[in-house]
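TICKET: design request
STATUS: open
ATTACHED STRUCTURE:
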């Protein structure tokens, strides 16, 4: 059974990462619709602001509580997050709450937390609220995906991207449910599942980047394509490991090396977008968004490798 300390620490770390991811998914959906679908724009905007509230409350509970490894991983914010938000707000006219990013930059970590029953109850309630909000977002994304693939609405997002962010929301919900049940993490099983999940995510990021770059950006397109192929291979290997036909330790080692490299590529790309040095139709916040996901995965892979799974 999960200890009270780990329940609090893991819950808050999860929300610091994923609540921001979900609010940005809502933002990406919001800016992708045409005026004909103003009702969908409004719904996405409402969801975005609700996740702002969830993130704000998570930040308030996290100071002096959350693990140092989470704050130092680059999954909560990166050196580019604030500038990416400012640029994206400028391009879209949408009010992005950059104060949340500034507050997160000042968060203090603590690896020697003393259990507080009141804090534990607040975190439990935060988890319940998050699951309800995620369920609403999952329904919204499912509705959009169905409408897009049946040609009932147009969006500038790829159908695969909508499916991609739908899978991430479902994954987030599942992780919270495990925490609410105080389930101890089985590192071996978690490695199989997480590596199969995140390697596919990294492959799809590479393909989205490839498709959103200007056709003249040949070198970047080729690099993104190579990463897509590499992570497709790693996804297949992770699934083979789940079937016990390949050792998970090899997949972890290979995934770690590849994720370090794609994190560097995404960091360079995000900096290039923020500094207007890359020709593309990638909104700067998307660059920072996928960088944070790579950094999150890197932290997990280091845990799995340290445990010698």
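STATUS: resolved
RESOLUTION: sequence designed for all positions
ATTACHED SEQUENCE:
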């Amino acid at each position: 059974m999960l200890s009270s300390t780990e329940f609090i620490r893991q819950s808050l770390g999860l929300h610091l990462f994923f609540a921001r991811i979900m609010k940005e998914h809502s933002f990406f959906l919001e800016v992708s619709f045409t005026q004909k679908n103003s009702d969908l724009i409004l719904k996405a905007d409402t969801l975005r602001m609700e996740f702002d509230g969830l993130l704000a409350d998570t930040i308030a509970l996290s100071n002096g509580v959350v693990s140092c490894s989470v704050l130092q991983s680059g999954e909560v914010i990166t050196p580019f997050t604030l500038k990416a938000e400012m640029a994206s707000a400028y391009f879209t006219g949408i009010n992005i709450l950059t104060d949340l990013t500034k507050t997160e930059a000042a968060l203090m970590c603590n690896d020697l937390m003393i259990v507080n029953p009141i804090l534990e109850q607040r975190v439990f309630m935060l988890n319940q609220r998050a699951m309800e909000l995620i369920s609403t977002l999952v329904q919204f994304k499912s509705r959009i995906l169905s409408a897009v693939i049946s040609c009932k609405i147009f969006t500038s997002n790829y159908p695969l991207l909508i499916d991609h962010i739908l899978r991430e929301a479902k994954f987030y919900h599942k992780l919270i449910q495990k925490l609410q049940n105080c389930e101890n993490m089985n590192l071996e099983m978690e490695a199989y599942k997480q590596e199969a999940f995140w390697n596919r995510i990294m492959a799809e990021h590479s393909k989205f980047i490839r498709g959103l770059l200007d056709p003249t950006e040949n070198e970047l397109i080729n690099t993104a394509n190579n990463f897509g192929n590499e992570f497709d291979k790693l996804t297949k290997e992770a699934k083979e490991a789940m079937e016990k036909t390949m050792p998970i330790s090899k997949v972890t080692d290979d995934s770690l090396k590849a994720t370090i490299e794609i994190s560097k590529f995404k960091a360079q790309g995000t900096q290039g977008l923020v500094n207007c040095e890359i020709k593309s139709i990638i909104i700067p916040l998307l660059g920072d968004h996928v960088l944070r996901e790579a950094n999150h995965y890197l932290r997990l892979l280091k845990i799995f490798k340290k445990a010698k799974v």
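CLOSING REMARK: The chain has a mean pLDDT of 95. Residues 82 and 98 are 6 Å apart (CA to CA).
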